[in-house]
Amino acid sequence: MPVVKAALPFIVLLAVFVLLIGIPMRRQARAQRATQQMQATLSVGDDVMTTSGLFGTVVGLVGDTVELQVAPDVVVRFARAAVGRQQGETGNAADQPAGSDGPDDAGRESTH
Question: In the chain, where do the E strands start and end?
Fold first, then answer.
């Protein structure tokens, strides 16, 4: 019994450590799986944003690459892994500042 009492603080400390490390790791793994699933199911016509912040519309998919139209007659090629999110996903409206009409307003000062 004295061994259990002596080991109890160590067991509690270990349990706290596992919780503090394990819970964030699970959340990160879940988010990574969701991103990989989204990247695997991209289709032509999807509006996306790359991890570098470039907005575009998917116009082609070839293997592990995706072709995005970022302006009329301007198509760029990225790795699928560079696609960070689809614009139709829930929660994207909160990412834009109030009064913004979307990515076209980026970098412009408000006239209000």
Answer: 47-50, 55-62, 65-71, 74-79, 83-86
Structure tokens at 28: 């990160």
* 2-87, CATH topology level: SH3 type barrels. (2.30.30)
The domain limits of the chain are 2-87
Q: What residue spans of 41-112 are helical by DSSP H?
A: none
Q: Is the separation of the CB atoms in 47 and 89 below 8 Å?
A: no
Q: Report the C-alpha gap between 11 and 14 in whole angstroms.
A: 5
Each residue's pLDDT tens digit, 34-73:
999 999 999 999 999 999 999 999 999 999 999 999 999 9
